[in-house]
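I am writing to request your help with a piece of structural work I have in hand. Thank you for your consideration; the sequence and its C-alpha cells are set out here:
=====
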Amino acid sequence: MIRRIEAGAGMLRGVAGAASEEDSARRPADGGWCLREVLGHLLREEREDFRPRIAAVLAGPDAPWPPLDPERSVREGGFRERDAASILAEFLDERRRSLAWLRGLAAPDWGLFRDHPRAGRLRAGDLLAAWADHDCLHARQMVRILHGMVKEDAAPYAVDYAGSW
C-alpha cells in the first residue's frame, strides 16, 4: 500500500497537469469542486486525515481522534483563489513527508483499530488501504472534470467517437 500511495502522487500530478491554470478554476457543469478544490481537498486530507488518524490508531484506543470536516475545509479553504501549481506542490511536499513517516514506522500493527462514529471499526490497515484508494477516487473525479471540459469546449462537435464514458 505504501508503494501505491507513492505512485498515487505521480498519478495525481499527471492528471492535474492536464489542465491549464485557467481551466483548473472552472467548475464542472454539476456545480461540484473545480480541480483546484480537489487538489486542496487532497492537501487537507494528507495533513489532517490519513497520517494523523493512522497515527492515532497506532497510538492506542485512548489517543485523541483528530476532528475532520472535508467539505467545510474545501468550502472555506480558498483553494479556488490560489493557483493549482502551488496547491499541487504543497500536496506533493506533504506526500513526501507522509511517505517518510510511513517508511519510518517500526513494525506497525496494522490490525489495531478504533471505532469511528460513522464508519464503524477501522483498523490501521483499513485506513492505509483507503489512503491509496482515495488517490484513485480523486484522480477519477479530476478526469471526469477534464472530460466535461472537453465536451463543453468541443461544442458544436461531439466526442462520442472516443467511446462511451
Notes: The chain has a mean pLDDT of 95. The chain has one domain: 2-162. Helices lie at 2-16, 21-24, 35-59, 70-75, 84-104, 124-154. The longest helix spans residues 124-154.
